[in-house]
From TrEMBL:
GO terms for biological process: phosphorelay signal transduction system. The keyword Phosphoprotein applies. One of its GO terms (molecular function) is protein histidine kinase activity. This is histidine kinase. The lineage of its organism: Bacteria, Pseudomonadati, Pseudomonadota, Alphaproteobacteria, Hyphomicrobiales. It is an enzyme of class 2 (transferase).
Length: 459
């Protein structure tokens, strides 16, 4: 019961974090602009409310703290590369303070006067410009609760002002209206995404038919080529002109093999596209136990490498750990990460390392390349759908969002670190499976198939 509740809480946090990151991926300059606006507004309005139109309560310390918190928000481009992944979480909590917390606290301390009533209304609407729907509601509620605690500490009173309680139905109506309107927009956006997925899936399926025809024709032609080779040799022995040389016959055979290989590779790309677009579920009934070494072997063995690409990859299994998941989905995760790594080292002499190891914190599967690296501004949004660091080389931004969805469905996490000129590393962290769960799974497998019990590594 406790583990299930903890897992649900983790999934909720992941969904909220993912929604916040996706919300800001489409408008990366909204947060720096907000930080700059707050840098100007906080000291300016302190002067207005303290000296020009004095209000019952002002607090210079809170203004200074709010201004200081907004400096890193405004100066995103100057964040160190190794800290840039913390930019969005920092914005989340700092804007919570300078927005709902500060404005609600000032409303309470000023006796709910008209100036701060209008200011509070404005900040509620402004909050939903800076947060997605779910996080906007959460931040608004958290802001009120934290502000109440601050009010009790600053005023010495432990009761909630009646005037403030009278405002709650009004602000509740505003929140409800925002939620309703935002939900309608989300339904429209979801329907568009479903239609786009259906169209992409239809196109991908339609491509299978000609690819199958190409493979069949190539294989049939190769069968005829064997007879043609025998006839050609017979003609050569009798001195006939216009026969094909042995080199020509080898070239024809190689061309047919390449045609078949290209068709197989195209089918694999279609499989990856369809898998990436599919909205998978991760019920406990579907997830089984697998050894990571066999999953890596399956992925590397099935991947359609171009000439010379396989030699760039080193597989290092330091610990052949057991993970719980769906193997075909993990194989496609490795497909996507290897494809990205190969794209990064294309045209160069880079190397790719696939490494599996176990630490005290959990199991780790990492895929590292020595390519040119990714821009720091891209890193916080790298797992957002349709955001890609390889747009110039054909990246679509679908694969990495799929990887995140799958890994988090396995109760794991995926992160990316990169340095310009040195390369990129994707690190998948998976939870350590308890021994008693493995023993129970082995027992269940033995009962379901007593004549031939399943190996633990095969699921």
């Amino acid at each position: 019961m406790g583990r299930a509740l903890l897992s649900r809480l983790r999934n909720l946090v992941r969904r909220l974090r993912g929604a916040y990151v996706e919300y800001h991926a489409v408008s990366a300059y909204k947060l720096p602009a907000t930080g700059l606006l707050a840098l100007i507004a906080f000291p300016f309005y302190y002067f207005i409310w303290a000296y020009v139109f004095p209000q019952p309560y002002e607090n210079l310390t809170l203004r200074v703290v709010g201004t200081a918190l907004c400096i890193p928000v405004a100066l995103r481009r100057y964040w160190p590369r190794h800290l840039i992944t913390y930019y969005l979480p920092y914005c989340y909590w700092s804007l919570l303070f300078v927005g709902p917390v500060f404005f609600t606290l000032m409303l309470l301390m000023n006796g709910e006067n008209s100036v701060w009533l209008m200011s509070e209304t404005a900040i509620i609407l402004f909050t939903f410009l800076l947060y997605d729907l779910a996080n906007g509601v959460l931040v608004s509620i958290l802001g009120v609760l934290i502000a109440l605690i601050g009010y009790w500490l600053l005023s010495g009173q432990i009761d909630v002002p009646t005037e403030f309680l009278l405002l709650l139905p009004v602000y509740g109506f505003i929140l409800s209206a925002v939620v309703f309107l935002s939900h309608s927009e989300r339904v429209i956006a979801r329907d568009k995404l479903i239609a786009a997925r259906a169209l992409a899936s239809s196109i991908a399926h339609e491509m299978r038919t000609p690819l199958l025809g190409i493979r069949l024709d190539a294989n049939k032609t190769r069968d005829h080529l064997e007879r043609l080779s025998a006839v050609n040799q017979w003609a050569q022995e009798r001195g006939y002109d216009h026969t094909l040389s042995d080199r020509d016959m080898v070239a024809l055979s190689g061309a047919l093999q390449r045609v078949d290989k290209h068709a197989v590779a195209a089918n694999l790309v279609i499989d990856m596209l369809l898998t990436n677009l599919r909205d998978e579920s991760y019920s406990q009934e579907r997830m089984k136990f697998y050894a990571i070494a066999s999953t890596i072997d399956e992925a590397v063995g099935r991947f359609q490498f171009r000439p010379g690409e396989r030699e760039l990859i080193e597989v290092r299994v330091c610990d052949n750990f057991i993970y719980q998941g769906v193997e075909i989905l993990m194989v496609h995760v490795i497909f996507n990460l290897v494809k990205n790594a190969l794209r990064a080292v294309a045209g160069g002499d880079g190397q790719i390392l696939i490494e599996a190891r176990t630490t005290s914190a959990g199991h780790i599967l990492s895929i590292t390349d020595t390519g040119p690296g990714l821009e720091a501004a891209t890193l916080p949004y790298i797992f957002v759908p349709f955001v890609t660091g390889h747009a110039a080389t054909g990246g679509t931004g679908i694969g990495l969002s799929f990887c995140r969805r799958v890994v988090e469905g396995f109760d794991g996490s995926i992160s990316c670190s990169s340095e310009l000129g040195k390369g990129t590393s994707f690190e998948i962290r998976l939870p350590i499976v308890e021994a008693k769960r493995l023993d129970a799974a082995d027992a269940a497998s033995a009962l379901s198939s007593p004549a031939m019990p399943q190996a633990r590594s095969g699921g």
